[in-house]
Write a structure and sequence with these properties.
CATH class of the largest domain in chain B: Alpha Beta
CATH architecture of the largest domain in chain A: Orthogonal Bundle
Low-confidence stretches of chain A: 252-256
Low-confidence stretches of chain B: none
Largest interface: A-B, 23 and 32 residues
Order of helices and strands of chain B: EEEHEEEHHHHEHEHEEH
Oligomer: heterodimer
Family (chain B): Belongs to the ABC transporter superfamily.
CATH architecture of the largest domain in chain B: 3-Layer(aba) Sandwich
Number of helices of chain A: 11
Protein name (chain B): NitT/TauT family transport system ATP-binding protein
Helix content of chain A: over 70%
Strand content of chain A: under 5%
Organism (chain B): Enterovirga rhinocerotis
Bound molecules: adenosine-5'-diphosphate, magnesium ion
Radius of gyration of chain B: 19 Å
Shape of chain B: globular
CATH class of the largest domain in chain A: Mainly Alpha
Structural class of chain A: mainly alpha
Helix content of chain B: 25-40%
Shape of chain A: globular
Distance between the termini of chain A: 19 Å
CATH topology of the largest domain in chain A: MetI-like fold
Keywords (chain B): ATP-binding, Nucleotide-binding, Transport
Number of domains of chain B: 2
Mean pLDDT of chain A: 87
Distance between the termini of chain B: 43 Å
GO molecular function (chain B): ATP binding; ATP hydrolysis activity
Radius of gyration of chain A: 22 Å
Structural class of chain B: alpha/beta
Number of domains of chain A: 2
CATH superfamily of the largest domain in chain B: P-loop containing nucleotide triphosphate hydrolases
Largest sheet of chain B: 6 strands, mixed
Strand content of chain B: 15-25%
Amino acid sequence: MSATLRRRSLSIGLILAFFGVWEVLCIALNVSDLVLPRPSEIFTVLWQRAPQLWPHMLQTLGTTLLGFVLGVATGVVLGAIVGSSRLAYDTAYPLLIGFSSIPKVAVVPIFVLWFGSGTVPAVLTSLVICFFPIVVNIATGLATTEPELEDVLKALGASKFDILWNVGLPRTMPFFFASLKVAITYAFVGTVLSETVASNRGIGNVMISASSNFNVPLAFAGLFILAGLGIALYAIFSLIERQVTGWATRKREIAV
Amino acid sequence: MSGRKAIELESVGVTFGSGADAVPALSPTTMDIGEGEFVALVGPSGCGKSTILKLVAGLVAPTTGVVVVGGREASAKAQRIGMAFQNPTMLPWLTVEKNVMLPLKIVQPYRAEFRAKRKGEFRDKVHALLGEVGLRDFANAYPWQLSGGMLQRANLCRALVHEPRILLLDEPFGALDQFTREELWAALQSLWMAHRPTVLLVTHDLREAGYLASRICVMSARPGRILDDSPVDSARPRTLASTYEPDFAARTQRLRDLIVGAQRHVAEVH
Ligand SMILES: Nc1ncnc2c1ncn2[C@@H]1O[C@H](COP(=O)(O)OP(=O)(O)O)[C@@H](O)[C@H]1O
Ligand SMILES: [Mg+2]
């Protein structure tokens, strides 16, 4: 326990040191705040503009969470389909790979064309960016069910659904939660991408208008907010993952 | 033995795939297994032993002939056969008790009562069975806390918990060391004597077959057919010491010659 405590305080110390060095270098090298503002300036802007920034943050957070929830739902359904049959796997996999390699900036204008600018394209962009890792992980989890166990259960007269419910889905849980952490950060990227291109609200929009006004500290303040939200949600999902799928990590500890 | 037939294979042949890719796995085979018999199936690798088990379980359909189990044509949906493989496949997120209970969640009539009884009657049933194989104290352990031999004991319990009439074992002890394996033979023998299911055991180990089975079938190389079918009459419970007696050794030797002969025949043909 004390070892982890020491590791924690060390990493917190190093992060603070990173900001310290940044601050000192900016002063020492006389860097203009139009190029790279100092952390102290950024935090001051965050503090002073908090009342104006707050609704934008909520907008981005809400959009991201909505896109994320829809993306997870889509991903679970697609993953269950892809992972439970060979034919579906062979058909869907190339399609999904193709789809995931499209740069998502390219789909924003299409969503804007269909739904106008604002929240809807942002939710959709975040959805299409974040569902892919979930599909892959659910499908992989389902596909790794041991054939022997499947035979044991089928010999008992188990239906496909019985097997999915008792074995397939519980086995995908560690894969699923691991993919949630990735998906939530992807969802942020999607939202901000769409907000910068086609919205007058949200942190993405704040950053793009700040940079066009050469208000570089404000743009960086936006970046910091995004990073903070991303870290917080990542941490929440890591915590849930540890609670729900302890058996997977315990097994690894024993194996080592 | 009651004399009733538990399993009947009537000229059952299996060919996997078709056309140029066709793999003949089992030559037309006819065989009857009586209720409560303990049959060991031995033969060279790839000769169709696992295929026979899957036919009986209704997991593979015969290409020719019929498989009759308990008087009806074999079908996985209508049966409730217990199976165990070399890989114990315990679910890592469940305790040993819950793993062993899994079939009760799937097979009728237990399934209908599962919610009501899993904490009382079913739990006692599982604990009693675990007690028979010396795992009572491990009911609440997780699979990763058990040794290979203990996992295989739990695997046998899972295959028997719903009181199947037929137990299919596919090289269940193949991955265990010699000492553990011999302990498991004793455990399986006493389970069989207590519950008297019809057992079909696939094994590579002729001593294992001689110790456990009441009848040994030797198969030829792929596509398999039955070369030899002979009873093992010695009294039960059998002891490890009995596997070193001259009669036992002579039988093992004879079976070994048959199998080696079958493999040499293949080598000459190729
Ligand atoms: N699903 C399958 N598809 C194609 N070939 C198979 C299949 N299952 C088994 N075989 C082939 O059938 C033959 C018999 O297999 P099996 O019954 O597993 O042999 P074993 O006696 O070693 O258990 C082998 O040559 C194997 O490669
Ligand atoms: Mg086999």
